[in-house]
Amino acid sequence: MNAAPVILGYFVPIILVVIFLVLFKVERPSLPVFERPQTEVRTALFLFAILGVIVVVSAAVLKPVHDTSNLTTASMVYSSLLYAVFLLPFIAALVVRRQGLHTCLIPTKGVLFHLTVAIAMGFFSIPVYLLAIGKISMLPYALSNMFTVSSLFFLVPIVMEEFIFRGFLLTRFTAGLGKHKGILLSAVMFGLYHYPRYLLSSHMGFLETTQIVILIIAVSVGGGYGIYSIRCMFYGVFIHWCMDIVQTSIPPR
Questions:
Q1: Structural domain of residue 163, as residue ranges?
Q2: N or C: which end of the chain has fewer CB within 10 A?
Q3: b/e 145-156 (16+ beta carbons within 10 angstroms → b)
Q4: Residue 200 located in a structural domain
Q5: Structurally, how many domains does the chain consist of?
Q6: Does 72 map to a domain?
Q7: Tens digit of pLDDT for each residue in 14-63?
Q8: In the 8-state DSSP scheme, what is residue 31?
């Protein structure tokens, strides 16, 4: 497992964004402030437990999908509904507690600016990854593959994951536990979230799955620091999306 291309593909764009925002003194969205940070942490842990139950049950009961690049329309709709179920407890918590989307690092000001830069940095991660694996000649193919129906469907789980782990959980853990502990905890949870899905819906064994989960946690720690610094989850969504698609369509070996 060659982790270097993945790490470069994720972090080079994020680092460039952080440098750009600092050098040009671009106004970043404000970090949310909670009245009872410890209560927010307990709520976040409880909701993650609910998510874990849903993920384990769905992975054990539903038919595994091995080829996500060629899903039928019916499978895409069915999967989208399932991801909506994953997201529902977190949306319900926001509504019940009367908290806005800004508490999940979705900006209320400068939305178009951050969205545009996030999309640009997502696409920039593609040539970075291809250069790292020595396949830059495949760039036209990789870019064209971004706009297939299956590739666009990848946005559904990625938006859900980023909203939960580097939006909802990240802000609440960092508010109640401090920046470093909060980022680490959200990253570990993101890695654990993949265990049942990978073990039950792929041909990988426990050892191989563990290696990938460790890489996911490591990348998520770095991504957590980046998104925390940028204070906008859009960057996580589009870099995550572009990297997933290019890795799926052009593996390193």
A1: 4-26+33-60+81-249
A2: C
A3: bbeeebbebbeb
A4: yes
A5: 1
A6: no
A7: 999 999 999 998 989 999 999 999 999 999 999 999 999 999 888 777 65
A8: P
Tell me if 250 sits within 8 A of 134, measured CB to CB: no
Element (H, E) at 46: helix 37-61
Q: Is residue 67 part of a domain?
A: no
Is the torsion defined by CA of 149, 150, 151, 154 positive or negative? positive
Nearest one of 165, 119, 128, 166 to 146, comparing CA atoms: 119
Considering only residues 8 and 248, tell me which one the structure prediction assigns the higher pLDDT: 8
pLDDT at 68 over 70: no
| Segment among 69-73, 75-79, 104-108, 202-206 with least mean pLDDT | 69-73
How many Å apart are CA 135 and CA 231, to the nearest integer? Answer: 33
Q: Give the pLDDT mean for 234-252.
A: 91
CA distance 87 to 81: 10
Q: Which two tokens stand for residue 10?
A: 């994720």
